[in-house]
Design a protein that fits this description.
This protein has helices spanning 7-31, 36-52, 54-57, 62-87, 93-121, 125-136, 141-148, 152-169. By secondary structure, it is mainly α. It folds into 2 domains: 1-89, Rna Polymerase Sigma Factor, Chain: A (Orthogonal Bundle), CATH 1.10.1740; 98-174, Arc Repressor Mutant, subunit A. Helix 1 runs antiparallel to helix 2 (36-52) and helix 1 (7-31) crosses helix 4 (62-87).
Amino acid sequence: MTQRIPPEVAAQVARLFVDEAAGVFRAARGVAGGNRRVAEDAVQEAFRLAAEQWDSIAHYPPERKQGWLCAVAIHKVKDNYRAWTRAQPIADPEDVARESQGVEQVVLTRLQVERCLKVISEMPEMRSRVAYLRFHDGWKNREIAAELGISRGTVGKHVSDARADLKRALPELTFTDAPDGDAEGEEAP
């Protein structure tokens, strides 16, 4: 049962929604495998929970509020995924056997992504934000620089340090993106 939200809290959460919903949606959609409906439901749940717990999170700085909302949305996606998979009957064991290699790869990939996100979440704040945008959301270094108001060189340093942190924590990890984060042939400003 959802509690009644005071009007002043609803107004503050509405402002927060305007500022942060797009980023929270991107995070949720990435974990939801691109499923828009699942991501939208998770975002709605995150902001509902924010309104209910506003007394606890109102004093957070903007970056921490965004992180909190993203974490809640991601957990909601995972919870819904687990509930959905438990509710799905297995129709034919032979079908499962034929598809198991693909399913196994999906599960292993998702586990590796979760491990990477955990390592990223433990990095210093700016490096964590850069790494998340770069490796999770697929932003280019110039886009990250513009978004965060820092130089491309600083973004590059954070990306390099984040790569080193990830390689230390997950030595089996292989990077497939361009180290500078920009498309081939694209000129640096």
